[in-house]
Amino acid sequence: MTDEVIDQDAVVEEIDLETSTTERQRAGIGPFKRLYRGLTTFDFVGRRRVWFAISAVIIIAGMAALGIKGLNYGIDFKGGSSWEVLAPGVSQQQAVTAVTAAGLSNPTVQILAGKTIEVQADTNGLTKAELAKVTTDVTNALAKLADPSHPDPTAVSLSFVGPTWGGQVTQKALEALIAFFIAVVLYISVRFEPKMAFAAFLAMLHDLAVTVGIYAIFGFEVTPDTVIAILTILGYSLYDTVVVFDRIRDNTKPFAASGRMTYSAMVNLSMNQTLARSINTSMVAILPVLSVLLVGAELLGATTLQNYGVALTVGLLSGAYSSIFIASPLLAIMKEREDKYIAIRQKLTSKGQRQVDLSPQAAARMRMAAPSARTGSGRRQPAASSSSASSSPAASSGSAPTEASQATQMSAPVITPRARKQKKR
After folding, report:
1. Bridge partners (DSSP) listed for residue 116
2. CATH architecture label of 80-161
3. Which SS3 state, helix, strand or coil, does residue 108 take?
4. Residue ranges for the chain with pLDDT beneath 70
5. From CA 110, how far away is CA 83, in angstroms rounded?
6. Residue 126 and residue 108: Cα distance in Å, rounded?
7. Which is deepest, 86, 171, 193, 387, by most CB within 10 Å?
8. Maximum Cα–Cα distance for the chain, whole Å?
9. Residues 80 and 124: beta-carbon distance below 8 Å
10. Distance between CA 154 and CA 151 in Å, rounded?
11. What CATH number is given for 48-71+165-335 in this structure?
C-alpha cells in the first residue's frame, strides 16, 4: 500500500488562508498579546543590517575609548592605596580638595550611598617614607573632613595592595577567561554542527566586546568582581543561544529541509517561537540585579555589589540582545550559502511562490497536522476530497509520491470548520 498524496495547490491555499487569518487576528490584538499568543511574524533575519549596525557602533566606540583612555582598573589589578570613611553631607569636590592638599595625585573619589567617602590612588611609585607620610596626611584629612570638631583617624579604613599582588590578580583573571572560552568551544563543538557552534562563539565574543567597550566609554571601575560577572554573563548568553539554536534545529526538518520554507524564514519562525521566553528570562535575571544595584550599592553602600551589579546589568542586556539579533542572523547567513538551501530558494522563486512567514501558532497547527493525518497503518489520509485525490496522477497510477509531495505532507495544515467558513467568504 502506498501513501495517499495531498494536492499541492490545496496545501498552498491552506497556507495562504492560515496566514491571512493570522494577519486579521494580529490586527485587532496588541503587541504583547500577540507575542504571548504566538501570533508574531517579526523578520529578525531581514533586518540583520540594522542589528549589526547597532552592535558595530557600540563596539567601535568602545574600542576607540579603550585605545584613548583605557580601562579604569581598580587597585586589585594595578595596586595602590584605598581609604574609606563615613562622612554624611560631604560632597565629592570637598573630598577631592582635601586629599589633594594632603599629597595625593590623581585620586579617585566616590561617594557611596550618599554618606561614605572612598578614596583610591596609585601609590606604587612612592618610597616607604613618602608612602608613610602620604598615608598619615590623607588619613588625618579625611578624619577632619568627617568630624571637624573631633577628628578620629581610627574611623578611617585603610587598605593597601602592592603591584606584585595586582599583577597576580590580572594573570589569574586572564587564565580564568581563557579556560572558560576553551571549555565553551569544546561544549558547543560537540553540542552543535560547526556553523551553529561558530555563530554561538561569535555571539559570545560580541558580548565580551560590548561589555569592555561600555566599561571603557563610561569609565566603570574594573575589579575582580567584574571578571566574575563577565564569566557569569557569558555563560548566560551561551545558555540563551543554546535554547534558540535547539528550536532552530527542531524546526529544520519539518520546515526548511522539506522545501516549503527558506532557511531564513525558518530561523524567523524559530525566533518568534522563543521570543517570549527570551524576554521573560532576561527580565527575571535583570530585575534582581537592579535590586542589588539600588538596595545593596546605593542604600547600603556595598561597593562590591555595585561593581558586580553594573557588570551583570551590562552583560545580561548584551547577552539577551546577541542571542536574538546576532547569533541567529549570523547562522542564517552561513546556512543560506549551502547548496541545499540555495536550491530551495531558487525553486520557490522559479515557481513564483511567495515566502510563507508563519507565526508560532500557525506552525504549531501545521506540525500537529502531520501525525493527526496518519492512520493506524501509517498511511496518510488525503486532505482534498476523494474525487480530487482519485483524479490525481499519483493516485490513479499507484506510484509512490514525489519528493515535493512528501515535503508538502510534512507541513500541511489542517483547515478547521471555522477556517473553511472564512474561505467561502
Report:
1. 86, 112
2. 2-Layer Sandwich (3.30)
3. strand
4. 1-39, 113-114, 163, 165-166, 256-259, 296-305, 351-425
5. 11
6. 17
7. 86
8. 107
9. yes
10. 9
11. 1.20.1640.10
